[in-house]
Structures are given as structure tokens and as C-alpha cells.
């Protein structure tokens, strides 16, 4: 990528899109378009086609999605599948029609089969079984996006990367205590409990293990992928933490130690998920933020956001 290439970021006002936009600006890129639902309805094929023909991006970072956490995925399976399928289909087709140099599409670790054929999860195992039932509809829509990218490469020469992400977190996320992802949901719960001097109710028993990456590390990695890595690529920090460990760190940061009550009637999700990171390691990528520093920045940002 060169500095004046037209770069389009879909989902440009969310966690991934905003952090990537800020990083690209910092790096001196000067022709960036970021869109949210109010700028272009990606569920509408005609609107998407018109927008792409008007802007003619050279690179597309496709981060737009209908995103839920574990409970949201369980309760909204039909809309999750339908809306994500439409969004991805419209964006890939429109990007191909205007001749983009490359599309970098955000996948999800949810696409991997459960139980996993092996651990850590490798890119070539995505279609080797059904995904975890708690998020299967979302996963199938993301798998369909990967299948479409492959088909468009074969038919039209589309150049692409498909990013299979670990659990991402940071400012600008959806801090929904019921339908958000685990870390923003927890931060929202801790904040509300602290303000109201109440116990923090955390779902499950804390035993599930995940790889977490801070959004600022992700932004740097996405540019590396755009410039040097094609095809399917796992991303992650390479460090795994139980949900209980994450809760303990947030308890420390928020000064809410000994204030947590676990609700074991709620789902834990998949027990363990880790990723083979050979591809990004081969390009010498390492995270710059520790889990503590990332959580501390996110907590501080959220507290300021709520106060304003």
C-alpha cells in the first residue's frame, strides 16, 4: 500500500475499524474512507454497489458484521446468519466489480470445528466439522465468506486475506453486558457494579480459555497482512488466559477485588481455543501490549466515555 491509495474500511466506527483508521492516519495514509451503517447500508446490494463505484477503493478492510457475544449468538441465530451473509456477499461482489487490489476480510475463530480436530487450530482445518453450537449460525456465515473469496479468486482473480481472529478487545467496542463479547461485557458489568456499589455477576464458572489481542496490536498486524500475507491467516497474541484470570485482572484494575459472584447457570462457551500462529510468526509479528496494559487502557477509556 502507498500513502495515497484509496483505502475503505467497512465497520469503520467499531472496535476494529476505528482502531485501524487511527493507526493508518498515524502512519501517514491520507485517503481513507470509513463507513458505518449510516454511511452505506451494506445489507442493500444496490446501495453497496453504488458506493463502491463512487469511491473506487484500492484496498478494502472488511470489518463490518452483525456481531453478538455468546448469549446474543444463541438468541439471534437467524438474523446473525442472514445479515452477515448479505453484508459479506455484497461487499465482496462490489469490491471485485471495481477491481480492488486486495480485500482483507475479518473472519472469526468461531469458524473452526468443535470439537477441534487438533490444537492449536490450524488454518486448513476450518471445514473439518461443525462449529460450536453456541455460535454456529455466525460461524457458517463467516465460512460462507471464505468460500466466496476462494470462488472469486478462481473466477475473477480477486486478491484476498481472510483473518481468523482470536478474541479482540479495546476502546470503541460494543460494551453490552448481555450481548457483547466477553471483555467489553465484563468491563461494562464492573463499571455499573462499581457505580452502584453492587456485586459483579459474571456468567459461567471462569474455566473457558481464550487468546486475547488488544486492538492496537491488531491494527498494526492488519497492515502487515494487507502488504505481505495472502489467504487464510490466524491471528492472536500467542498467550491464553482463562476467563477467571481476565476477571481477576479487571477486578484489580477497577479496584473491585472480592466483588465477583459467578452465575454457573449461564453458558461458558467453548472450553478451550488456541491458534497456530506460524504464519504471522514467520513475519516476525509480536504483540506490543500485555494483557494488563490493554485492559487498563480499555477500562480507562470506558470510564471516560461513560463520564462524558
Question: What does this protein look like?
Answer:
The strands form 3 sheets. This protein has a 6-stranded parallel sheet with strand order 2-1-3-4-5-9, sandwiched between helices. The chain has a 3-stranded mixed sheet with strand order 6-8-10. With 308 residues, it is an alpha/beta fold. The two termini are 37 Å apart. 45% of the residues are buried. The mean pLDDT is 95. The protein has one domain: NAD(P)-binding Rossmann-like Domain (Rossmann fold, 3-Layer(aba) Sandwich). Helix 6 (182-196) packs parallel to helix 8 and helix 8 crosses helix 10. The chain has helices at residues 15-26, 45-55, 70-75, 77-97, 136-156, 182-196, 215-228, 243-254, 278-282, 291-307; strands at residues 7-10, 32-35, 59-62, 102-106, 160-165, 167-169, 200-203, 209-214, 231-235, 240-242, 260-263. 44% of the residues lie in helices and 16% in strands. It is built from 10 helices and 11 strands. The chain is globular and about 55 Å long.
Amino acid at each position: 500500500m502507498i500513502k495515497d491509495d484509496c483505502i475503505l474500511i467497512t465497520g469503520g466506527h467499531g472496535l476494529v475499524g476505528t482502531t485501524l483508521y487511527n493507526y493508518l492516519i498515524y502512519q501517514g495514509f491520507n485517503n481513507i474512507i470509513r463507513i458505518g451503517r449510516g454511511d452505506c447500508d451494506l445489507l442493500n446490494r444496490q446501495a453497496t454497489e453504488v458506493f463502491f463505484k463512487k469511491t473506487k477503493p484500492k484496498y478494502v478492510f472488511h470489518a463490518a458484521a452483525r456481531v453478538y457475544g455468546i448469549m446474543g449468538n444463541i438468541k439471534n441465530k437467524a438474523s446473525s446468519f442472514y445479515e452477515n451473509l448479505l453484508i459479506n456477499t455484497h461487499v465482496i461482489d462490489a469490491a471485485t466489480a471495481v477491481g480492488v487490489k486486495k480485500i482483507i476480510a475479518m473472519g472469526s475463530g468461531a469458524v473452526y470445528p468443535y470439537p477441534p480436530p487438533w490444537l492449536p487450530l490450524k488454518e486448513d482445518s476450518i471445514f473439518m466439522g461443525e462449529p460450536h453450537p453456541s455460535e454456529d449460525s455466525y460461524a457458517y456465515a463467516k465460512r460462507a465468506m471464505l468460500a466466496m473469496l476462494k470462488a472469486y479468486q478462481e473466477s475473477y482473480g480477486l486478491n484476498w486475506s481472510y483473518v481468523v481472529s482470536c478474541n479482540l478487545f479495546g476502546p470503541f467496542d460494543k460494551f453490552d453486558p448481555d450481548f457483547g463479547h466477553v471483555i467489553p461485557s465484563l468491563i461494562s458489568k464492573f463499571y455499573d457494579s462499581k457505580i452502584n456499589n453492587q456485586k459483579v455477576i459474571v456468567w459461567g464458572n471462569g474455566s473457558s480459555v481464550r487468546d486475547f489481542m488488544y486492538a492496537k496490536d491488531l491494527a498494526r498486524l492488519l497492515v502487515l497482512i494487507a502488504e505481505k500475507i495472502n489467504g487464510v491467516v490466524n491471528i492472536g497474541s500467542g498467550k491464553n488466559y482463562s476467563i477467571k484470570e481476565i476477571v481477576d485482572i479487571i477486578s484489580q484494575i477497577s479496584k473491585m477485588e472480592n466483588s465477583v459472584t459467578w452465575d454457573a447457570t449461564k453458558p461458558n462457551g467453548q472450553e478451550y481455543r488456541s491458534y497456530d500462529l506460524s504464519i504471522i510468526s514467520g513475519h516476525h509479528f509480536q504483540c506490543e501490549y500485555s494483557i494488563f496494559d490493554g485492559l487498563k487502557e480499555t477500562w480507562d477509556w470506558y470510564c471516560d466515555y461513560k463520564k462524558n
